Amino acid sequence: MSLTTSSAFAVYVHWPFCLSKCPYCDFNSHVRHGGYDEARFVRAVERELAATAARVPGRTVSTIFFGGGTPSLMQPSSVAAILDAIGKHWRVAGGVEVTLEANPTSVEATRFRGFRAAGVNRVSLGVQALDDAALKELGRLHTAQEALDAVAVARASFERYSFDLIYARPRQTLAAWQAELKRAIAEAAEHLSLYQLTIEQGTPFYSLHKAGKLVVPDEDRARDLYDLTQDICAAAGLPAYEISNHARPHAECRHNLVYWRGHDYAGVGPGAHGRLNIDGRRYATETEKRPESWLMRVEAKGHGLIVDDKLTAGEVADEFLLMGLRLAEGIDPERYRALAGRALDARRVAILRAEGAVETTADGRLRVTPTGFPVLDAVVADLAA
Ligand SMILES: C[S@@+](CC[C@H](N)C(=O)[O-])C[C@H]1O[C@@H](n2cnc3c(N)ncnc32)[C@H](O)[C@@H]1O
Ligand code: SF4
Q1: Which residues does ligand 2 sit against, CB inside 6 Å?
Q2: DSSP characters for 153-186?
Q3: pLDDT tens profile 312-360
Q4: CB atoms within 10 A of CB 182
Q5: 106 CB less than 6 Å from ligand 1?
Q6: 25 Cα to the center of ligand 2, angstroms
Q7: CA angle 29, 34, 40 (to 5 degrees)
Q8: Beta bridge partners of 100
Q9: Sign of CA pseudo-dihedral 243, 244, 249, 253
């Protein structure tokens, strides 16, 4: 099977450190009270970039994303050094999107100006809630006002910004979420990420939930909250372009679109994932998660890869479905056929269509309907089976 090398190429840089660990979060994020050697981690990221570029030379970088953890804890000079390294190894597209995830607790205007000067042109802030009691329950170190102040700094510093909220929280009523979301929309510009609280295994929230001490909305209530979210955002001109992401037209996060559209991305830093087309085959890469182990690996070998798998045609096609059907634009069934070596099962598509879970657009794309989105996992499982 041969895959055409797509034009979009993204670089993801994972910065794994946080000031404290939020009890709901299972991202690869770590607290180091004793500190860590930032310059040494930055040098290791530079080495991994060099190793990756040697495998996929000659690409043009269209988006860069500093994710975490909390990349806003980095010195602007560290961000600048990493961006310089990316520019040395690949051509960087003129209109490159460079996003940095920021935690409201680590936002100061001077640091933001530094990120801006380094080349960051978009920030994504983890606001999570505009309610002090909820923020406390989520283990956040900031108040609602501090989060709004951080949004104001972002607005003054960058031409593009987004922020995240978590909903379907314990005891959250429809009326309270409606008011909170409307307040958030008034502060938003072009993009909002709205995640339903998920109880992740291995987190303190998981243990509390299991012990009955943390009660989250049941399926029906969560569905009502989801529907309300869609209605309010669409009416405000911020429709969902992905199951949890809302944007004005053309203001989507281009970096995340690279993942969802099945294009290539290099992942560097501890626990980063990548997808690379090399000599007509698609590779799934993953680096060591533990920051210090990753650092030692990179220093010894030049990279921190612990997974570097050639994907089968079936795996590539399943991933294309899984990622692409999250998007409101859906997928091109012809691309699925080219990747899988077979068409989607027409009978299954017909059943899902009859149930109102999927539809075919005038230009032949297959997409999940508003009825299908709340049961997306089941729809994908059905189509991929
Ligand atoms: C990796 S975090 C980075 C943001 C930054 N560290 C912060 O917390 O401000 C990305 C986002 O994932 C979301 N998130 C993390 N764990 C979640 C969970 N269990 N349920 C729903 N959303 C979650 C949060 O909204 C968070 O802002
Ligand atoms: S939500 Fe953000 S700040 Fe909290 S632990 Fe996860 S990555 Fe760190």
Answers
A1: 18, 21-22, 25, 27, 29, 68-70, 103, 126
A2: HHHHH-SEEEEEEEES-TT--HHHHHHHHHHHHH
A3: 999 999 999 999 999 999 999 999 999 999 999 999 999 999 999 999 9
A4: 11
A5: no
A6: 6
A7: 70
A8: 66, 123
A9: negative
